[in-house]
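input
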Amino acid sequence: MRLAIVTAYPPSKVTLTEYGYHLVKHFRLQEEVTEIILITDVTEDAKDLSFEEEGCKITVKECWNFNEYTNLFKINNVISKTKPDAVLFNLQFLKFGDKKIPAALGLLLPLLCKLKGMPTISLLHNILEQVDLENAGITSNKLLQRAYNFIGSTLTKLVLSSDVLAVTISKYKTILEKKYNARNVALIPHGAFETPPEPDYTLNEGPKQIMAFGKFGTYKKVEIMIDAVELIRESTNANIEIVIAGTDSPNTPGYLESVKKKYAHVEQLRFTGYVAEEDVPQIFGESAVVVFPYTSTTGSSGVLHQAGSYGKPVALPDLGDLSILVKEEGYLGEFFNPECSESLAVAIQNIIQHDSYRIHLGKTNYKAACSLPMSAITQLYVDYFKAIQHAKSVGFDLEVPQKKLEVTV
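output
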């Protein structure tokens, strides 16, 4: 199978870059995949293919840019010329731009591939029905929110034209089936990016690092985390370092710089900036706790799965998709009120004051991550592609089972 994967890819800063990297890394080892055609955004530096010596051939086709109006035509042209056997789209609603027209045009691509007769799967990381438009930094205007919801429903119908629409959270599958009467929605878990050897769970000498990882400024705001650690320091004199690992959200440029200025007086506060893929293990490995300073959620959390892969305890708000993931996939952490720094301080303190509890949480999360490795997730996609191909060969549409991950025709 010659598989085309349409995704942002490192060193790109576009959303879902990390997930695209790990999709490619694990698809290349699937026996059924003979070549990956990586249809990705243009970057100044070369694409990160440090794993390319193993597995199948990877052909890179850089052809699109964030917010470019011609992305639809450029990507479609590459697909027409390369003629892959199957196409996988790694999507969310603002994948191709945060301007309405480029974003919408990009989401027409699954329909075009379906019309070409190519087996097509779209992985949709969020659905607009579950996105808080104000907290996500899209719009606070109520009229515009209604317009976005209408447009989002239209675009969802377009993405549902894929042979299979994959989602990572069971609630998304339920919503899409009920609202759109869809029968081609598959629940395929997010998966853990890496399953490194089980750590020994001991921490380095020195301050305990409390870390948040991601793109900040919209619904991910680090002030609550800084304030919480300051409260712990005042009451316990604990030796703690605050680590903000990542960059601004594209919707809030300058956010982290403003935080630096506001908290210039706070000691042991470190901003790492962009974290390259090869530096991720160290950032997580040195952390005592991974904090999720979120006020809402917009899909399955790659950071939660990464934390689990490195055996880290987590402090997270009991809301939305994070709450569902913890319950469905077996993760464990301390919950806090996302609007209360005192609540977060208690959650962090509960974890770091007793090594036995911190280690228990880390071991539980490592076990949860290992139960859903990306190798198993990519095999599920291969199975679905094979089922789609078979369905097309006998002239039937593929109907996805309602509650099982197995594929049937």
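quick obs: The longest helix spans residues 374-394.
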